[in-house]
Amino acid sequence: MLRLKNTLTRAKEEFKPIDDNLVRMYACGPTVYDYGHIGNFRTFVAVDVLRRYLKYRGYRVQHVMNITDIEDKIIREMRAAGKSLREFTEFYTAEFLRDMELLNIERPEVTPRATEHIAEMSELMEKLRKGGKTYESDGSLYFSIASFPRYGKLSGLKLEGNIAGARVDVDEYDKADARDFVLWKAPKEDEPKWDTPFGPGRPGWHLECSAMSMKYLGESFDIHCGGVDLIFPHHENEIAQSEAATGKPFVRFWFHVEFLQVEGERMSKSKGNFYTVRNLVDKGFSAEVIRYLLLSAPYNTQLNFTFDGLRGASSSLDRLRNLRRRLADLKSAPGSNAAAADAVKKAIEGFEAGMDDDLNTSAALAAVFDAVRELNTALDEGKVLEGDANSALAMLEKIDSVLGVLGALENAVLDPEVEALIEERNAARRERKFARADQIRDDLLARGVILEDTPQGTKWRRK
Ligand code: AMP
Ligand code: ZN
Question: 317 and 405 in contact (C-beta within 8 Å)?
Answer without folding.
Answer: yes
